[in-house]
User: Fold these one by one.
Assistant:
Number 1:
Amino acid sequence: MPEPSATPRRARTSTGAIDLVGESAVRPGDLDPATAGTGSRRRVMATGLVVEVTVPPVTGVQNFTALLEPECALEPGSGPAEPRALRLVWQGRRGVPGVGAGTRLRCVGVVSFRDGRPTMFNPRYEIIAKQISR
């Protein structure tokens, strides 16, 4: 009879979807370098509207960039805070299917600060809906 393993095996229940319960929602302080601290990195979930995309040139670095206006949860005791735009960067890609201006996204990743701007590299994402103008 084989001996049981000392470490329990994790059940495979992953669907590939973003875990809404396990991820903490982004707060305005997470997107401000002054309050987040130097070298601060935190894994968050951000939901919002893509307001701008930048397609890389053919000869340049292949990074597809989108600017997300997040819907931030208000922190207790704070007044109405204007959320900063979150830069999403997919490295080595000229485009990301379904991601364009007007798309609502939910993304998960680590927020770091590059050039003083909150940036999330290679985030996991879900498309929530796309706004249609009439």
Number 2:
Amino acid sequence: MSASTKRSSQDARLEAVFGTPVGELYAQAAAGVAPPAVSRALELRSFLALTEEQVARVRDRVYAAMAPEVDMNELSAAQLRWDSQWMDAALSARGEYLTALGELFTSMPAAGSTAHRPAKLDQPGLAAHPVPRPAPAALPAQSATRGR
């Protein structure tokens, strides 16, 4: 299953920010007509969806191992330590992806803003004839050094 078809915890937020269902956003990106912010958000969303799937798998594995019907003689502290490390890594990655998505959303221009237009610079144009500059005066230390 592709990451683009997996659900993520941020799908509703993406749809609210871009005003389009996630599936359509992926179609725009595949057609090459999506703005750069959409492409970046979808890339992060794909990573997030995969990471959230990892979190769910480890959670389910731990729940299954700790189920009341499981014989206590089958419990493995080593396996639970492994699962704890995997869960720590997956939750850490999930947090980083959520942070990156949040930063992307806050850095995007507001809908209907003029931030996507090139800024006008209030700088005077270059003069057709450069203004001559006076030659720099020689420093006394330089002329004394040359005489030695």
